[in-house]
Design brief:
Helices cover 62% and strands 0% of the residues. With 188 residues, it is mainly alpha-helical. The protein has one domain. Helix 1 runs parallel beside helix 3, helix 3 runs antiparallel to helix 4 and helix 4 runs antiparallel to helix 5.
Length: 188
């Protein structure tokens, strides 16, 4: 007879059981050392990227909106690392990767806006692609809520289409030397 859920909707002896936890032999993909390591590496990369972005010299210094955006990138990466402690959740590496993409977009945008126009076009292109990938990552996280699993083919297909559309749009904007529209940037 299969185990029945307890009062808190967990099945005794599984990774989601707070008493048994992953030490009981139940599989805990999100709490594994591998995913913790990946998330930690993404956190370190985010910190390095944020520091690099903050060191870019611009006239007028660092605008408050950019300071908040950099702080949010760090906060999301830290939240992903903390979330690896919960074996019932998955998707921490996606959150950490999205934080890194956001930090890359911010740093590249700061580099792209420094100096004369047209001088830093590759940085602007990277900023555009990364910003659109952050939007696609947000769609991914929303469709995977509340536990980080993409249940069903429809959700998986929607997420794959979102990433492909973001990448295609970002590359098209980069090739034509256009910036990400302000309305799309507001979504970030």
């Amino acid at each position: 007879m299969p185990a029945r859920p307890a009062l808190n909707d967990t099945v005794p002896g599984t990774a989601a059981d707070p008493v048994a936890g992953p030490a009981s032999g139940a599989s805990a993909r999100s709490g594994s050392l591998w995913w913790r390591l990946v998330t930690g590496i993404l956190l370190a990369a985010t910190v390095v990227t944020v520091v690099a972005g903050l060191r870019v010299q611009q006239p007028g210094g660092l605008p408050a909106a950019q300071a908040v955006a950099f702080a949010l990138a760090l906060a999301f990466a830290l939240a992903a690392v903390v979330a690896t402690r919960d074996p019932g959740l998955t998707g921490q590496w996606q959150l950490a990767a999205m934080a890194l993409a956001g930090a890359i977009a911010l740093t590249a945008a700061r580099l792209g806006s420094a100096g004369p126009p047209g001088q830093h076009q590759p940085a602007r292109a990277v900023a555009g692609v990364a910003a659109l990938l952050v939007i696609a990552g947000t769609v991914h996280l929303v469709l995977a809520a509340p536990d980080g699993h993409l249940d069903g083919r429809g959700r998986r297909a929607a997420v794959a289409a979102g990433y492909l559309a973001a990448l295609a749009a970002g590359l098209a904007l980069a090739v034509t030397r256009h910036a990400v529209p302000a309305a799309a940037a507001a979504v970030i």
